[in-house]
Here is the input.
Amino acid sequence: PVKGILRNTIYQHFVGGTSIADCSKTIQKLAVRNVGTILDFAVEGEERDELFDATCAEVIRTIEFARNNRHVPFSAFKITGVGRFDLLAKVSEKAQLSEEESKEYRRVYDRVESIFKRGYDLGVPILIDAEHTWIQPVLDDLVLEMMERYNKDVPIVQNTYQMYRHDAIHRLKEHHRIALDMGVKFGLKIVRGAYMEIERARAAEMGYPSPIQPDKPATDHDFNEVIRYFMDHLDTIHFMVATHNEVSSQLLAQLIDERGLPHDHPHIYFSQLYGMSDHITFNLAEKGYNVVKYVPYGEVKTMMPYLFRRAEENTSVKGQSSRELKLIEKEVRRRKGK
Here is the structure.
């Protein structure tokens, strides 16, 4: 029953469709308003190689689709869509891998490389989502390696930085420096972050300092600070500010104007999730800024983790007191209790 409830409520609100073809109406609808689309095959947390291979093939199809559609300027994927979470954690910890695990990680590596290589061959930039802090190290290492290989002329490989991490600015600046040293283009996306409760709970449980900022103002401060950093280094940074925060959006728009830059400067993108903050998206698009919507797609059952995150964080949905949404929230709590 939960699947049916999801399909008729938050799935319709936050998801572009079940397949690339199914998203075409959404892409067109956004394009009419001068808004681009990033197709995001929102699968994560799988465990089996054949599913990882299928996800990898699907991500490559989104790249091929983007190549032929000017309204789809980027592609995107999650490393947990193409590799097992626990394995990524082990590699991040620099733990000794068994022979079987080493082979498994090689397959993850090959999937990631095949995605970026396809982007490189077709000239489509690819954003890789940020993850939980304890699997982010392997992701960062992979991204830097792939940047060196594929970002010589165009920032094909682009990492994501969660500004609710108190080390985010430091990591980001360090990666920028490494990119400059390698002589490659540096492209990235910033977000505030999606796993705060999990991160804090794990840190408390395992007895290490929380990687998360002490409060929201600290996150907001770093988020806006890093926007200023980007604008000061615009010649060597291509960036996307993914936010539903009006203050941060206004700040970037204002800085673009203050510096007399064209609104559609090719190094600068704004982004919001499909189904959220349309007033920000469409106002910016109307003024000629580069704006994209992240449009996730997939079957209801594979999209549950994504949908539960949206239901939890989205006040416009939480504010509705319908019986269906109460059932969804109950299901979220049940899953957390597992």
